[in-house]
């Protein structure tokens, strides 16, 4: 068995084999957070569960995954990173098989947890391996490969899930992972090896840290995913969960900064670039995952698309994401992170401006252009953020740093889902109230609509009283539909404003020359 080779000792063929191998691992792990979304109605029929219960199929995976994302560095030290990666892939494979053959709702939740435990570590470890496999001058391309895995996957999940569910049934959304997992395990065992400088072994197990981390991340996930459904702090359950989450988080920070072998190495946040990249990645995650959630909602609720077509609506963004990842990787080496991130922000802002112009008569064609533009801009942000987050971290802490950066983006995604749910509900109420105030029998336009519509309905055979009631109900439907449209436009505006918050942070990002100089010193 060959040992670890430095980037200079590795051939181009070996580097790209490793890149594709770990990218596939990250891709299927991220995709399984969204691939089940379009299959839940089918699972409800199979398991005989309610709408609120079946969402735990997604929530259970997310909780297990995000915990393992955070603990990836610690487990890598305990078992060795390559061994831990192989074990994680094996668990993910086993979880996928059992999810496909699950015969009850309880079994499905247990198997999704196993799958999430296996999938969580694949994401940060993939980034760390790529960071060490490619030389400095090829880091942009390395992160473009990583980006094709973790950014393309959320958009591809609903599309692939819809196709597999319609053609062969929901179990195939899990079975499709198996050949990819088997191939990845084989290639990882053959080509991936631990570098000698990685931190190895722990003197003691941080049981308290593990417990606090589990309580904090589980509580946060439950609050963000279930809060809107439970009416937030009107619910005693959400209130208690929120307090418990905050207390666990504060105690965890205090403990982990003093623990000799912490399960989460918070000390590495002293690295300015890692902290900066993680904060910017969090905001990027809000937009990426929030848009992934809100666009299918828009197409189903207002445009009347079926589930598969709603997932397909994200295809234009996925296409340009894939095409522009390598372009952004090449540009990163030429212009540096600052110019590339600024360009990405401008492009994404333009796409959100276009989305703000949509109306209730919009069709698929009206959504293609803004989504193509958004897909073009996202790689210009993702690649520089992924690269600068790890550019000045000590080599022995690469996996810990990748875990924290990935955690920031995942928390951003959870916030994005919750933010969309809250904004949509509140904005619909606000716009409905405003429109109702301006649609009254005292206004000529409203009166003309009511009179003419009532007359037409009466001519169809209904009596005057029934025709009048039907007209008022129709008017109410029109008002609510327009209120929803305005709410979706507001969300596009708010997400666009979030990207404006990133502009001042560009000024403190490292320049291209600074990154090269720092890495030459290592």
Key descriptive features of the protein:
522 residues, mainly alpha, 22 helices, 78% helix
Walk me through the structure.
The protein has 522 residues and is an all-alpha fold. It has helices at 12-31, 40-47, 51-54, 56-79, 81-100, 105-120, 122-133, 139-150, 152-168, 172-175, 177-191, 207-226, 236-256, 272-301, 307-312, 315-355, 364-390, 398-438, 444-459, 464-500, 503-506, 512-521.
Layout of SSEs?
Blueprint: H1 12-31, H2 40-47, H3 51-54, H4 56-79, H5 81-100, H6 105-120, H7 122-133, H8 139-150, H9 152-168, H10 172-175, H11 177-191, H12 207-226, H13 236-256, H14 272-301, H15 307-312, H16 315-355, H17 364-390, H18 398-438, H19 444-459, H20 464-500, H21 503-506, H22 512-521
Helix pairs in contact: 1-6, 1-7, 1-8, 1-9, 1-11, 4-5, 4-6, 4-12, 4-18, 5-6, 5-11, 7-8, 7-18, 8-16, 8-17, 9-16, 12-13, 12-18, 14-17, 14-18, 14-20, 16-17, 16-20, 18-20, 19-20
- Please tell me the overall pLDDT: 82
Question: Strand content of the residues, in percent?
Answer: under 5%
Q: Encode the helix/strand succession as letters.
A: HHHHHHHHHHHHHHHHHHHHHH
Q: Please tell me what the overall shape is.
A: globular
Structural class call reads: mainly alpha
The number of helical runs is 22
Distance between the termini: 28 Å
Helical content class: over 70%
Largest sheet, in brief, is: none
> Which regions have little confidence, pLDDT < 50, spanning 5+ residues?
none
The number of E-state strands comes to 0
Rounded Rg: 25 Å
């Amino acid at each position: 068995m060959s040992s670890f080779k430095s980037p200079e000792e590795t051939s181009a063929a070996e580097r790209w084999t490793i890149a594709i191998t770990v990218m596939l691992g990250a891709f299927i792990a991220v995709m399984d957070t969204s691939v089940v979304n379009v299959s839940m109605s089918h699972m409800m029929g199979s398991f005989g569960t309610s709408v609120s219960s079946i969402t735990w199929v997604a929530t259970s995976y997310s909780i297990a995954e995000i915990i393992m994302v955070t603990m990836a560095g610690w487990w890598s030290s305990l078992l060795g990173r390559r061994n831990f990666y192989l074990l994680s892939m094996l668990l993910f494979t086993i979880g996928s098989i059992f999810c496909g053959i699950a015969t009850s709702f309880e079994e499905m939740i247990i198997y999704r947890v196993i799958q999430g435990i296996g999938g969580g570590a694949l994401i940060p470890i993939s980034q760390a391996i790529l960071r060490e496999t490619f030389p400095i001058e090829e880091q942009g391309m390395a992160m473009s490969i990583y980006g094709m895995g973790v950014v393309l996957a959320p958009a591809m999940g609903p599309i692939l899930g819809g196709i597999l569910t319609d053609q062969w049934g929901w179990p195939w959304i899990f079975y499709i992972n198996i050949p990819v997992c088997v191939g990845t395990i084989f290639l990882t065992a053959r080509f991936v090896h631990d570098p000698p400088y990685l931190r190895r072994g722990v003197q003691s197990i941080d049981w308290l840290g593990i417990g606090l981390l589990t309580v904090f991340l589980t509580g946060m996930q439950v609050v963000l995913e279930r809060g809107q459904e439970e009416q937030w702090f009107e619910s005693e359950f959400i209130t208690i969960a929120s307090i418990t989450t905050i207390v666990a988080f504060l105690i965890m920070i205090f403990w982990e900064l003093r623990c000799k072998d912490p399960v989460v190495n918070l000390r590495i946040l002293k690295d300015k670039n890692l902290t900066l990249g993680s904060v910017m990645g969090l905001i990027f995650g809000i937009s990426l995952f929030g848009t992934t959630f809100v666009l299918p909602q828009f197409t189903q609720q207002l445009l009347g698309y079926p589930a598969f077509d709603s997932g397909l609506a994200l295809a234009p963004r996925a296409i340009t994401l894939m095409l522009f990842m390598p372009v952004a990787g090449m540009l990163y080496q030429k212009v540096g992170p600052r110019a590339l991130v600024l360009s990405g922000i401008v492009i994404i802002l333009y796409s959100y401006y276009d989305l703000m112009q949509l109306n209730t008569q919009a069709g698929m064609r009206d959504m293609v252009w803004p989504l193509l533009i958004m897909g073009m801009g996202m790689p210009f942000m993702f690649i520089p953020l992924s690269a600068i987050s790890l550019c000045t971290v000590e080599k022995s802490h690469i996996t810990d740093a990748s875990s924290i950066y990935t955690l920031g983006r995942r928390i951003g995604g959870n916030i994005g889902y919750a933010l969309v749910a809250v904004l949509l509900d509140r904005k619909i109420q606000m716009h409905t109230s405003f429109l109702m105030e301006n649609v009254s029998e005292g206004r000529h336009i409203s009166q003309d609509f009511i009179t003419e519509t009532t007359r037409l309905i009466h001519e169809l055979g209904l009596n005057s009283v029934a025709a009048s009631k039907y007209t008022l109900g129709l008017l109410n439907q029109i008002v609510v539909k327009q209120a929803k449209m305005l709410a979706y436009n507001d969300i596009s505006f708010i997400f666009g404003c979030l990207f404006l918050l990133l502009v001042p942070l560009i000024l403190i990002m490292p320049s291209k020359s600074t990154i090269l100089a720092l890495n030459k010193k290592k």
